[in-house]
């Protein structure tokens, strides 16, 4: 059997992002969300416009789904599939890092934990599968929010959980821009005092971010002596996210 066609995967990802943005999105917005060059995105949009799937607004700067195509706002990835693809990789990350590992996805403005690996020691720990986390206050959430082109998943009210929680929308926007540039997100006592975390986005078909994987632990274990997130842990987390995403993409 022939392999999948990358251009079609990317076009499908563009359509899903447009479906979640009723006011439309620009070429730059789509490029940032999918990690694609503007020229590539423009070529996809031009083709989709020619076949009648998308239309431009009066200014010509934004695109949206046409009425003929309908809306595709619902997520395409079943949480059980994300969990099943992540299990082995997340377990390996916990074993190598010695820290708690979680896989999460955004649902109605909250991060839902779909998989949780205990820290590999003898301490008492509670299972977090099914629990929710505030996306603006945790690395898992920021890793996904950064690639939400429409901004629809971003919480309207940024509640404070510690003195370090980001509660200013402008500051959160700056943080998410930095996440896109780095390819990973960090947290430092933003949800729980004395805990830090690292997370990276999981990309499915077409580069669409479908969730994130990350680890959390005591600051002295996650950060170096200058309170910077340890580069070796960042590398581990990013490699794990890519491995999970690769499994999701290759089995389609």
Describe the structure.
With 252 residues, the protein is of the alpha+beta class. The chain has 8 helices and 8 strands; from the N terminus they run αααββαβββααβββαα. The strands form 2 sheets. Strands 5-4-3-8-7-6 form a 6-stranded antiparallel beta sheet, sandwiched between helices. It has a two-stranded antiparallel sheet with strand order 1-2. The chain starts with 5 loop residues before the first helix and ends with a helix.
What's the SSE blueprint?
Layout: H1 6-19, H2 27-34, H3 38-50, E1 54-56, E2 63-65, H4 79-97, E3 100-107, E4 110-117, E5 132-133, H5 139-145, H6 169-182, E6 185-188, E7 195-203, E8 209-218, H7 219-222, H8 231-250
Antiparallel strand pairs: 1-2, 3-4, 3-8, 4-5, 6-7, 7-8
Helix pairs in contact: 1-3, 2-3, 4-8
Protein name: IclR family transcriptional regulator
InterPro entries: GAF-like_dom_sf (IPR029016), HTH_MetabolicPath_Reg (IPR050707), Tscrpt_reg_IclR_C (IPR014757), Tscrpt_reg_IclR_N (IPR005471), WH-like_DNA-bd_sf (IPR036388), WH_DNA-bd_sf (IPR036390)
Pfam family, one: HTH_IclR
């Amino acid at each position: 059997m022939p392999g999948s066609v990358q251009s079609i995967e990317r076009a499908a990802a563009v359509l899903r992002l447009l479906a979640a943005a009723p006011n439309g999105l620009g070429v730059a917005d789509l490029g940032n969300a999918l990690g694609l060059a503007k020229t590539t995105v423009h070529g996809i949009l031009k083709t989709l416009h020619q076949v009648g799937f998308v239309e431009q607004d009066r200014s010509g700067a934004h695109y949206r789904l046409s009425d003929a195509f309908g809306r595709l706002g619902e997520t395409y990835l079943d949480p059980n599939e994300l969990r099943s693809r992540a299990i082995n990789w997340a377990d390996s990350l916990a074993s190598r890092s010695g820290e708690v590992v979680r896989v999460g996805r955004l649902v109605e403005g909250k991060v839902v934990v779909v998989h949780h690996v205990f820290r590999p020691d003898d301490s008492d720990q509670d299972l977090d599968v099914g629990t929710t986390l505030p996306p603006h206050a945790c690395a898992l959430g920021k890793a996904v929010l950064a690639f939400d082109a429409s901004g629809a998943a971003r919480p309207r009210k940024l509640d404070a959980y510690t003195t370090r929680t980001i509660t200013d929308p402008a500051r959160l926007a700056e943080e998410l821009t930095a996440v896109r540039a780095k390819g990973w997100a960090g947290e430092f006592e933003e949800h729980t005092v004395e805990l830090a975390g690292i997370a990276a986005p999981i990309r499915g078909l077409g580069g669409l971010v479908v969730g994130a994987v990350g680890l959390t632990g005591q600051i002295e274990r996650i950060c170096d002596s200058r309170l910077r997130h340890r580069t070796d842990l960042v590398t581990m987390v990013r490699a794990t996210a890519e491995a999970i995403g690769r499994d999701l993409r290759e089995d389609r």
